[in-house]
Amino acid sequence: MLQLDDVSKDFGGLKALSDLTFNVRKGQIKGLIGPNGAGKTTLFNLITGVFPPSRGTIIFLGEEITHHKPEKISRLGVSRTFQQPHLFKSLTVWENVMLGRHYRTQSEFFACGLRLPNAALEEKAIKEKSLEYLSVFGLADKKNQIANKLPLGEQRYLEVARALATEPKLLLLDEPTSGLNDHETELFQDLLFRIREMGVTLLVIEHHMKFIMGLCEEIAVLNFGNKIAEGSPREIQVSPEVITAYLGTEDSLA
Amino acid sequence: MVLLLKDKNKLAWLFITGGVLILPFAFGKGFYLNTMNFIALHAMVAVGLCLLVGYGGQLSISHSAFFAIGAYATAIFCLRYRLSPLVSILLSQGLSALLAWWIGWVVLRLKGHYLAIATLSFTIIVEVLVKEMAWLTGGLQGLSSIPPIAMGGFLIDSDYRFYFVVWPLTMLLFLFSLNLVDSRMGRIFRAIKENEDIARQFGADVKTYKIKLFIVSSVYASIAGSLYAHFVTFISPVTGSIMFAIDIIMVLAFGGFTLLWGAMIGVASLTFLNEYLTIFADYKRTIYGLSLVIIILFFPNGLLLGLRDLSNRIFSSIAWRRKKHASAG
Fold first, then answer.
1. pLDDT tens digits for B124-178?
2. pLDDT tens-digit readout, A42-90
3. Closest by Cβ to A123, choosing from B176, B183, B258
4. Which of A96, B1, B137, B283 stands the most exposed, by the fewest C-beta atoms within 10 Å?
5. Do B190 and A80 count as a contact with CB atoms less than 8 A apart?
6. Residues β-bridged to residue A146
7. pLDDT computed for residue B1 by the predictor
8. Chain A residues contacting B, CB < 8 Å?
9. Does position B26 have pLDDT exceeding 80, yes or no?
10. Which residue of A has its CA nearest to B188?
11. Which of B30, B68, B34 is CA-nearest to residue B275?
């Protein structure tokens, strides 16, 4: 479903990613791990069109999106969350999710201002649908609160709810459990399985090893912009390259 | 109608509109109607600017220019081309929209102060052109004897009659704004205001959306300008001077940048202050300037909104202290 071929990204002289070939299959929960600065978030930014790669191609559902703008890529069905939740603080919890419905709806400027029958119906549907997504995450009774007044855990839920409201085919989650306690992390895992059952493919960046090993059937490991391993959690755990990247070599101890 | 009554905003709208339309019957004809007419004209401009600044996050100082363009265009169509006032007004809005599209396309790639400066320059250019193109605009002497609006042989030539043209129109434009900000487009504008990059991830075509909002907002000012020309029947370069742009920003600073109702309340309060504090007329600019600086320093969202937030904070801290006190005792 998502295919990256020999993708590189340089920031000036810094190679953030070099010749990365990577793919995500439909219906998968794929993990992406690696030490800090390995290029994981850069990869997300490339996929969502925040900036284009220096070389290489990105293909999503058979369409090349290498140089597409973010708004176009999101319309194709790629949605994401951020390391630090980026909620709109001037909008309520409910409105944040409603925003997720934006490109799944059509009413134009004047139809909205004149509140033509179509626009009014659509608005009603937006409200109902958004409330459904909020209920999935247990946020329905906080719908009229200002979004960034929520505790961090709920902000993360809200961000996922907002991303889901766009009806993505591929959902990118950037460290969804950072700042959550163990109990919340477990709940989050169940939630992600439910999201996959809705037919959404997931690509998850994580540092929380127990969480990612229990969640994904396939994991890719990045280090200094290179993919150093890819495979099942079991394979990753015993891979010498991965152990070296995370723990260092015996030489460096000496 | 059912939809209308469920919503607090719409209920307030219905109430105000009703109240405004009954007013002349309750108090009879009088000079206050003249003041009210100016409130309506200024409210149109302020609401338009509030949409752009408060919801779209684009600070523009070009609304006085579009007011002037609306006024001059309709006057010129009427006087030089002998078109009827209604046709002139409609044509003028088309012209303003075109101009706004072109200006918006050029300047809206700028942000913040740069955008403010660029739109300010546009206002200055319009003012200079109005003064210098005397063959078209009458130069410093302006244009006089602009015919009043005629609707099927019925002349809108008094405060009383104009009242029933300008107020319904103002309230309808206001309703349009209320609807807009509470819709998918309104939400995406607020998102753009906060963070363009993230808004784009939700499918916002930022550039096009901004231009559309700029056009609508400018046409609000232009409609007010056109109506003004036919109401006062005389226009001069003072009509759409930079001072007028500052006045409108002052209105928003007073009522609140991010609240449409604030624009309405701001216009009403400032107009009445202007009318009834004439003893300070000589110092008006000084007072305005000083208050603007103070308001922006202490209440960047606008005075009324700022005071509201402040009182909320005080009340909640009192409530919190009481609770603490109660649980301690």
1. 999 999 999 999 999 999 999 999 998 877 888 899 999 999 999 999 999 999 9
2. 999 999 999 999 999 999 999 999 999 999 999 999 999 998 889 998 8
3. B183
4. B1
5. no
6. A92
7. 39
8. 48, 50, 69-71, 74-75, 79-80, 86, 88-91, 95, 98-103, 105, 107-109, 112-115, 119-120, 122-123, 126, 166
9. yes
10. A99
11. B34
Q: Is the pLDDT of residue A254 over 60?
A: no
Question: Three-state SS for A63?
Answer: strand
Which among A71, A108, A109 has CB closest to B203?
A71
State the nearest Cα–Cα gap between B185 and chain A, in angstroms.
Answer: 6
Q: In A, which residues are within 8 Å of B305 by CB distance?
A: none
ipTM of this complex prediction, to 2 decimal places: 0.87
Burial of B153 (0-12, 13-18, 19+ CB in 10 A): exposed
CB atoms within 10 A of CB B98: 11
Using the predicted structure, report yes or no on whether residue B282 has a pLDDT greater than 90.
no
pLDDT of residue B93: 97
At A14, phi and psi to the nearest 5?
A: -85, 125
* B206: chain A residues, CB-CB within 8 Å: 71
- Name the nearest CA neighbour of B61 among B106, B105, B124: B124
In the Cβ-directed half-sphere of B56, how many Cα atoms lie within 13 Å? 28
Give the three-state DSSP class for A29: strand
Instruction: Write out the two tokens for B197.
Output: 């990059």
Phi-psi region of B57 (alpha: psi -120 to 50; beta: other; left: phi over 0): left
Helix (H, G, I), strand (E, B) or coil at B56: coil
Average pLDDT over residues B265-270: 90
- CB-closest option in A50, A88, A102 to B184: A102
In B, what residues contact A, Cβ < 8 A? 3, 176-177, 179-180, 183-188, 190-191, 193-195, 197-198, 200-206, 212, 216, 258
Are B146 and B235 contacting, i.e. CB atoms less than 8 angstroms apart?
Answer: yes
The Cα B58–Cα A17 span in angstroms is 37
Question: Which of A79, A86, A109 comes nearest B185 by C-beta?
Answer: A109
Structure-block tokens of residue A163: 């991303």
Q: pTM of the predicted model, to two decimals?
A: 0.90
